[in-house]
Each structure stands twice: as C-alpha cells, then as structure tokens.
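Duplicate of #3305? Posting structure anyway:
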C-alpha cells in the first residue's frame, strides 16, 4: 500500500514513521509513505501557501493553487482510491474505517492547517474528510500520522504475530482484556490464576468476560450499541 501525505510541516510527520512496526512495514516493502511539502508546489518566489480569507474572517486559508498542483501531480503518476482531508469537521475516525482503508492500494492524505483549505479543493478533489476527535489541533499532521499508523499496522505481514491486530481493542467492538507478563508475582501483586493454568478454554472464557466487563464499565456507549445490535 502507498500513502502520500501533503503537508506544510513535513518534518513534524516524518519522525512518526521512523520507528517500530511502521518502520519495519516500510523496510519489508509492505507500505510506502511519501511526505510532500506543499511549498514545493508553489509557483511564486516566496513559496506562499496561505492567504487571507475572503469575507474578512480571522485566520489564514491554504491556497487552491499549490494544493491543486500537488494533487494533479500525484494523480498523473497513479490512480488513488481515496483523497482524504484531515479536519475537525470530518467524519469521526474509527477502527472500522481503518480496516476499510487498509484494503486500499493508494491513498492521499491532505493535512489541513491554519483556518483550513480553500473550499473548492474540498468540493473537487476530496473523497473523504476525517476527524480524529471532537477537539481542534493546530494542524492535521498529527491526525494524518494517526490515520497512517492505524492503517499500516493492519497490513498483512506488518505485525509478526498475525493474530495480534485482530485482538486489538475495538476490532470486535469490545475493549481488549488486560494483559500481564513475567514475573507472575511482583511486590505482592499477582496475575489472575487462570492465565497461569494452561487451560486455554478457560483462558479464552476469562478474556471474553474481561472484555465485556471492561467495555461495560469504561465505554458504556460501545457496550449498549453491541447489546442493541444482538
Ligand atoms: N485538524 C485539526 N483538528 C483536527 C481533528 N480533530 N481531526 C483531524 N484533523 C484536525
């Protein structure tokens, strides 16, 4: 899978793809991430990406021309399945959406910044607007990093234990059960006996019960959805 990210702050993004599973996925050729500096697509000598908003509103707006140039250039190289814009007014991002995006071949993520981008870009190019939560960030870069991370870790071969991504929180609409590792006793703190029993049927039962109990306690909204669905 290939992800192209268009941003005014490439340096902010790059380091988030240089570690752990995401780095390994790139090294293995499972994922390609290309970060593009929007300024490289400006045609004026000052490489100015923003301008005042028509109508006199406070805050600067990303200009149509450099974004049009960037997207036109990328689209001339290959077909894209989605052109995503990160914005607080987008659709709330969920694991379900991450799963759907992980099946795509090529996507562009355009990071919002300042007061936003010229609406005409949204109207003509953007196929999906995504918000990572009901709060406002300085720019869409951190949102783009989160979206790319959540997609890449799902790609076949990205995580060495194939079942690991499937047992994440939210993957079956439940929070994940608690996990423990050695030592089994630490300063009087113990690990639930069942996990040390070697009885896999009982361990599975315990995990499901823990997931249900935690979801009911910590995310009653998810729990109610699940119960109403059944
Ligand atoms: N840009 C600013 N705030 C954002 C948010 N909550 N989600 C996605 N992009 C954003």
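Output from current build:
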């Amino acid at each position: 899978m290939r992800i192209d990210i268009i941003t005014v702050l490439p340096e902010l993004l790059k380091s988030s793809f240089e570690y752990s599973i995401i780095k390994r996925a790139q090294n293995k050729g499972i994922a390609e991430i290309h970060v593009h500096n929007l300024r490289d697509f400006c045609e004026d000598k000052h490489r100015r990406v923003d301008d005042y908003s028509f109508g006199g509103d406070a805050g600067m707006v990303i200009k149509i021309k450099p974004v049009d140039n960037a997207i036109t250039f990328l689209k001339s190289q290959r077909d894209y399945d989605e052109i995503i814009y990160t914005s607080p007014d987008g659709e709330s991002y969920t694991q379900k959406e991450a799963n759907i995006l992980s099946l795509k071949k090529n996507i562009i993520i355009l990071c919002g910044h300042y007061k936003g981008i010229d609406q005409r870009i949204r109207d003509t190019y953007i196929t999906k607007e995504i918000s990572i939560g009901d709060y406002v960030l300085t720019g869409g870069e951190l949102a783009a990093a989160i979206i790319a991370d959540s997609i890449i870790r799902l790609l076949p071969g990205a995580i060495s234990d194939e079942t690991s991504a499937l047992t994440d929180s939210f993957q079956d609409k439940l929070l994940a059960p608690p996990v423990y590792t050695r030592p089994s006793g630490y300063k009087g703190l113990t690990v639930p006996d069942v996990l040390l029993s070697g009885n896999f049927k009982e361990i599975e039962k315990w995990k499901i019960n823990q997931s249900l109990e935690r979801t009911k306690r910590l995310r009653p909204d998810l729990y109610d959805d699940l119960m109403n669905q059944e």
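Confirmed duplicate; merging threads. The chain has two domains: 2-152, 167-229. The first helix runs from residue 10 to 14.
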